Amino acid sequence: MNVAEIAVFVGGNLSGAGDAEIFRVSDLANAADGDIAFIEKAENLTKTNAACLFVPENFDAALPFPVIKVKNPKLAFAQVAAKLRPVAMRGERHATAVIAASANVEADYIGAFVSIGENSKIGKNVQIHSGARIGDNVIIGDDTIIHPNCVVYDNAAIGARVILHAGAVIGADGFGFVRNGASGYVKFPQIGTVVIENDVEIGANSCVDRGALGETRFGEGTQIDNQVQIAHNVRIGKRVVIAAQTGVSGSTVIEDDCVIGGQVGMGDHAKILSGAVIGSQAGVLPGKIVRPGVWWGTPVQPLDEYKRQNARVKGLERLKNELKELKKQIAELTAEK
Q: For residues 322 and 316, what is the distance between their CA atoms, to the nearest angstrom?
């Protein structure tokens, strides 16, 4: 893309020549010819060899290269990065790949030792990288990328433009057992499925369990970090963000536009209402309803309440010393009588 095309693509205002070709995105310090970078504030500008910059709308400095003025430079930069993302090794199917005769595969790239099961349907412009296993009756939409060593179990449905990072496991059995007295546990059936809607990204080594009898579902645009565990029958809405090492127990519902910090633990059948923000290492008890707002702590509570409680805890040492001093004074007064 040239600079003028990028300006149109992001809806920006171009200042300077628009014919320079842009091939890559880069940070300001390491940018070179053919790169585009960004600054969020005019005072962040330092010497750079970038071919073009995204800058704020109020930017008025004269530079020897073109700039594109936009409302949100970081957002524009991210949008162009996705547009410029190279599609690796188009048209190649490695000789070691094993594809069932009944599978309908239109993928552009299939790497070494990939296996695709019976009756699976793989869309156009899909990349499936080395060592990935796609089960039977799986549906994968157009432009999806499956990174190395991912496993997608039977009957899962994955939408368009989804990214599964290395080692992600989609559709494994959920952790469901019924106690049988002294005999131990009997496994509850795990025969449901997983549905991942369009434009979802799932981080490396994250696990999404299939529904026990129904489905586990992710809404459009949801973003999951590395090493996240999503249990059976969880329903996650649209545009939800979940940071690393969070665990979500079975049948929990997370509505649209929620933000979940790292290492959060959620008990089963909890409900996180649309717009809630839960801070890192918080604990959500089973069946808890978390309403819109910012929440923190274990058990999770509104942020202001959590801060007050934390302040009280920090004051315990002072209170202890004051009580000790009062006891000493009372003892001295008692001894004088």
A: 10
Q: In what order do the strands lie in the sheet with 253-254?
A: 104-105, 121-122, 139-140, 157-158, 193-196, 215-218, 235-236, 253-254, 271-272, 289-290
Q: Is 147 a catalytic site residue?
A: no
Q: Are strands 24-25 and 13-15 parallel, antiparallel or unpaired?
A: unpaired
Q: Determine the topology of domain 92-304 in CATH.
A: UDP N-Acetylglucosamine Acyltransferase; domain 1 (2.160.10)
Encode pLDDT of 3-62 as tens digits: 999 999 999 999 998 999 999 999 999 999 999 999 999 888 888 999 999 999 999 888
Domain 3-84 classification at class level: alpha beta
First to last CA, the chain: 93
Angle at CA of residue 153, ends 116 and 86, nearest 5°: 60
Indicate which residue of 94, 165, 232, 269 is catalytic.
Answer: 232
